[in-house]
User: Which sequence fits this backbone?
């Protein structure tokens, strides 16, 4: 299952659509401006909030929290620093972890669970400028969660670059 994401150019507070492989709108990333912390909502095409994403306050390292129906689903933070690749750890509520690694700012990275590929984020197979794709590899994976992970990781990497 592939999704196409147009990079937001102005930062948080801007809304943008994520389209499926047919070009139909699938999810809306609704950036919430004028908040003390960076906040996003991932909505379906009817405007129903599927996932809430917000920056965790009072954390040593920048951390994003993903919630579904008011319950914490995942916490994302930088794992370690490498010269060529960025690594982020996604700690899921059930105690398991996802590993995100690659060239985040170039939109070329992978999301893995226990060494198994779940999703690939890439600009390579798209010809539209300022656009990247999220290719969900496993049929049983949660597309909303993996898209939220991609949004968070890119947001954290851009914020780190700007600081």
Assistant:
């Amino acid at each position: 299952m592939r999704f196409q994401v147009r990079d937001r150019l102005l930062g948080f507070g801007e809304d943008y659509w994520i389209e499926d492989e047919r070009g139909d709108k699938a999810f809306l990333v609704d950036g919430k401006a004028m908040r003390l912390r960076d906040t996003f909502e991932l909505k379906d095409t009817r405007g129903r909030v599927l996932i809430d994403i917000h920056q965790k306050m009072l954390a040593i390292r920048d951390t994003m929290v993903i919630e579904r129906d008011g319950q914490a689903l995942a916490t994302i933070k930088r794992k370690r620093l490498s010269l060529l690749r960025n690594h982020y750890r996604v700690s899921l509520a059930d105690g398991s972890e996802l590993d995100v690694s690659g060239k985040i700012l170039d939109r070329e990275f992978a999301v893995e669970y226990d060494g198994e590929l779940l999703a690939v984020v890439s600009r390579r197979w798209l010809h539209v400028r300022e656009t990247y794709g999220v290719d969900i590899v496993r049929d049983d994976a949660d597309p909303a969660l993996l898209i939220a992970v991609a949004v968070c990781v890119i947001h954290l990497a851009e914020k780190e670059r700007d600081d």
Notes: The chain has one domain: 2-162. The mean pLDDT is 85. The radius of gyration is 15 Å.
